[in-house]
């Protein structure tokens, strides 16, 4: 089941005008910022399908930029996010694409600064809910039926054991897990689908584990 | 994941077997899935209710969108109701005007609660605050109205779609209207089965509705479709309360909505390429608002 909570249906509280194209877009931007770990210096946002056709009318652009500035869906500053971005020193560009994608509301968000770059693909599946389907070229294969977290870490022994032990401590059951890495000893990631919602406090605890770079929720 | 219901049939059966309201089943399922307390869940839903009230209040004072395409109609409708000569009746027009008020606020980038989406956010609160004047519900009953709407929306979202880009306007305003209809029935004292019938009757009459927003804006025809969604919801609720039933079972109606959405061309699914968006006036409005290049490089 993609939609689990009644508040996926009656909610979110948000700035209009579109749950998928504004609230969902803001959430995609915010997850990108979360994964990047800091305010990016620049962002290139590729839009596909309905996103590409109607992004100006739906304020998808100001919403994604708002998300990159860490604004929630009901943050009034979304309306003036372009000005806020200029003030925060973040450059951005929107590139509507004509290519076909699996989902009609797809955005590829590429962000970076002088230290690093990151590319992420998010889809907005309706009512403000989103899923992250790709990170830095790694496809994130989610069933979409369970909450999922993404853990980015250094490829060192013990990381996977530490994360699963921490989840076990809070009685969170892992339903499906994928691990992958670019090259031995480099960046690696875990996509973990679980049966329970992973609370913020548990995410914080995971972040404190050795060799963990990022922890974020990619489906809830 | 264990849930208490996966479709409307299971939802209604559970409510009737346990002699509970549909809203109660939804609350119990939310407690089960999120492991949160009843109080916590009720408080969050009341917050949503408050956002809805504030949006209606704001819209009834009169708002206008940046594009100028929508705004002010809720005010016109309220003034018309005041005159006392309306043909469709005060409750009906009140629901319509409050649905319009909410969507006018949404179009003006105001704060709203998506039910189930922002483009369809007017129907559930519009009908709620109109029937409220006649049924005189308690605050808890008003919160329960949102859980009943949510229970039906939950089934549609998981078994079909609530996204205009995926299923057209039938998936958005259609779902919202059907959800509202089921909730009206519960508030009016109808049975869970009557809620299901009202849902089916409403949804059947929204099938095939395309998503064709002029200039890609959630304004034309979205605001007025919320108005008509609200009126559909009220009429179908009355029909179900009168004992009228749907010949096609509710879950099959939801299945049909999904199938229709799948076979709908993408020009009619929130791409602003077909339907009203592609009319000469629709095109003209688009170029007037965006200076002729809606799709181009980022602004």
Record the SSE blueprint.
The complex is a heterodimer of chains A (220) and B (299).
Chain A (H helix, E strand, L loop, with lengths): L12 E3 L3 H18 L5 E7 H6 L5 H9 L12 H8 L2 E6 L8 E8 L4 E10 L2 E7 L2 E2 L8 E7 L4 H11 L4 E8 L5 E8 L5 H8 L4 E8 L1
Helix pairs in contact in A: 1-3, 3-4
Chain B lengths: L7 H10 L4 H13 L3 H24 L11 H11 L6 H18 L3 E3 L9 H13 L3 H21 L4 H4 L1 H19 L4 H13 L17 H20 L8 H14 L16 H11 L9
Helix pairs in contact in B: 2-7, 3-5, 3-7, 4-5, 5-6, 5-11, 6-9, 6-11, 7-9, 9-10, 9-11, 10-11, 10-12
Shape of chain B: globular
Question: Please, how many helices of chain B?
Answer: 13
Query: Whole-Å distance between the termini of chain A?
Result: 11 Å
Strand content of chain A: 25-35%
Order of helices and strands of chain A: EHEHHHEEEEEEHEEHE
Find the CATH topology of chain B: 2-methylcitrate dehydratase PrpD
Provide the CATH top-level class of the largest domain in chain A: Alpha Beta
Assign the structural class of chain B, choosing from mainly alpha, mainly beta, alpha/beta, alpha+beta, or little secondary structure: mainly alpha
How would you sum up the major sheet of chain B? Answer: none
Helix content of chain B: 55-70%
CATH homologous superfamily designation of the largest domain in chain A: D-3-phosphoglycerate dehydrogenase, domain 3
Largest sheet of chain A: 6 strands, mixed
Q: Categorize the overall geometry of chain A.
A: globular
Beta-strand segment tally of chain B: 1
Q: Give the CA-CA distance, first to last residue of chain B.
A: 44 Å
Just name the CATH architecture of the largest domain in chain A: 2-Layer Sandwich
Mean pLDDT of chain B: 95
Count of structural domains of chain A:
2
Protein name (chain B): L-serine dehydratase
Pathway (chain B): Carbohydrate biosynthesis; gluconeogenesis
Catalytic activity (chain B): L-serine = pyruvate + NH4(+)
GO molecular function, one term (chain B): L-serine ammonia-lyase activity
């Amino acid at each position: 089941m993609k939609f689990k909570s009644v508040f996926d249906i009656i909610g979110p509280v948000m700035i209009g005008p579109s749950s998928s194209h504004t609230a969902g877009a803001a959430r995609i931007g915010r997850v990108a910022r979360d994964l990047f770990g800091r305010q990016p210096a620049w962002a290139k946002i590729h839009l596909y399908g309905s996103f590409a056709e109607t992004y100006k009318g739906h304020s998808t652009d100001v919403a994604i930029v708002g998300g990159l500035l860490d604004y929630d869906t009901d943050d009034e500053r979304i309306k003036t996010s372009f000005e806020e971005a200029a003030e925060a020193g973040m450059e951005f560009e929107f590139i509507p694409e004509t290519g076909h994608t699996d989902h009609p509301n797809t955005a590829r968000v590429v962000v970076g600064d002088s230290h690093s770059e990151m590319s992420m693909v998010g889809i907005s599946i309706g009512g403000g809910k989103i899923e992250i389907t790709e990170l830095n070229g790694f496809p994130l294969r989610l069933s979409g039926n369970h909450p999922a977290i993404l853990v980015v870490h250094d490829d060192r022994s013990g990381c996977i054991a530490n994360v699963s032990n921490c989840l076990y401590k809070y009685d969170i059951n892992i339903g499906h897990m994928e691990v992958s890495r670019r090259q031995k000893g480099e960046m690696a990631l875990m996509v973990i689908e679980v049966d329970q919602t992973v609370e913020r406090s548990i995410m914080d605890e995971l972040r404190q584990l050795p060799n963990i770079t990022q922890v974020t929720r990619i489906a809830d | 994941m264990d849930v208490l219901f996966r479709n409307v049939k299971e939802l209604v059966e559970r409510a009737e077997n346990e002699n509970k309201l549909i809203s109660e089943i939804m609350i119990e399922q939310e407690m089960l899935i999120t492991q949160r307390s009843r109080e916590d869940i009720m408080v969050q839903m009341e917050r949503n209710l408050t956002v809805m009230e504030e949006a209606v209040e704001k819209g009834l004072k009169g708002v206008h969108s940046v594009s100028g395409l929508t705004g002010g109609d809720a005010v016109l409708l309220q003034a018309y109701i005041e005159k006392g000569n309306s043909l469709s009746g005060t409750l009906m027009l009140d629901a319509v005007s409050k649905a319009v008020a909410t969507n006018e606020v949404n179009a003006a980038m105001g704060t709203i609660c998506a039910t189930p989406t922002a483009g369809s956010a007017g129907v559930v609160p519009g009908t709620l605050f109109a029937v409220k004047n006649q049924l005189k519900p308690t605050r808890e009953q008003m919160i329960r109205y949102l859980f009943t709407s949510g229970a039906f929306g939950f089934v549609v979202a998981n078994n079909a779609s609530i996204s205009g880009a995926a299923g057209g306007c039938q998936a958005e305003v259609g779902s919202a209207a059907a959800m509202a209809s089921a909730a009206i029935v519960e508030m009016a004292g109808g049975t869970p089965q009557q809620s299901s019938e009202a849902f089916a009757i409403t949804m059947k009459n929204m099938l095939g509705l395309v998503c064709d927003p002029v200039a890609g804006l959630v304004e034309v025809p979205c605001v007025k479709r919320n108005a008509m969604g609200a009126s559909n919801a009220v009429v179908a609720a009355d029909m179900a309360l009168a004992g009228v039933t749907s010949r096609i079972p509710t879950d099959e109606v939801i299945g049909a909505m999904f199938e229709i959405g799948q076979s709908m061309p993408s020009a009619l699914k929130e791409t602003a390429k077909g339907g009203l968006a592609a009319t000469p006036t629709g095109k003209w409005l688009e170029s007037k608002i965006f200076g002729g290049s809606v799709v181009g490089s980022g602004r």
